[in-house]
Amino acid sequence: MKDALDELAAARRAMGKGRVPAGEAYTIEIRRRYDAQIDDVWDALTSPERLRRWLKPVTGELRPGGKFELDGGEHGEILRCEPPRLLKVSWLFGPEADDWPGTSEVEVRLAPGPAEDTEFELIHAAVVEEPLFPTYGPGAGGVGWDLRLLALAQLLAGGEPADHEAIEKSPEAREFIRRSAASWGEAHLAAGGDPEHVAAAVEATTKFYAP
């Protein structure tokens, strides 16, 4: 459990505003360092075999302009791909999302660190309506990314990430989720969120991920 909480503490989180083709968007931002070379991190982000191990199985045309689909419903288009530093995709969920192209975009930026490590930045910009953002705040997507990036850290460290469903149902995961939701609450407060709204959103997010 300590290793998982250390990974959680290694990230810096922020919430902001941005734009996608559909209009104004909320952004969640995660920055951290991985003890792996940039080419290794890039491969973990773009190799179908490795994506399956920390994110989800992926199919499609994995090239700029190509479309992809994850085993779980998420799908989109590869908007930019500049190895090994930048990957940007549209990120939609469910068939109804096709009516709203660009409602959600994920961008990952990598930079080589000073000790053969890698600086990692993920920005997820989404146009979010009721009940997601008002109810859950940035933790709606942020906790999910924290869980996935924990699995990525395990993969880059040479291990085999645990099964996602098993992780999320374990007692240790409940503590990880609780602390992740609280961390996103801190980011929400730092962005000017009303303290009562933030507290309610943190509670709702925790119950959603760990009912």
Automatic annotation (TrEMBL):
InterPro entries referenced in this protein's UniProt entry, alphabetically: ASHA1/2-like_C (IPR013538), START-like_dom_sf (IPR023393)
Pfam families: AHSA1
Record domain Activator of Hsp90 ATPase homologue 1/2-like C-terminal: where: 35-155
Signal peptide per UniProt: none
Superkingdom of the source species: Bacteria
Listed SUPFAM superfamilies: Bet v1-like (SSF55961)
UniProt similarity note: Belongs to the AHA1 family.
Protein name: Activator of Hsp90 ATPase homologue 1/2-like C-terminal domain-containing protein
Organism: Amycolatopsis albispora
Phylogenetic classification of the source organism: Bacteria, Bacillati, Actinomycetota, Actinomycetes, Pseudonocardiales
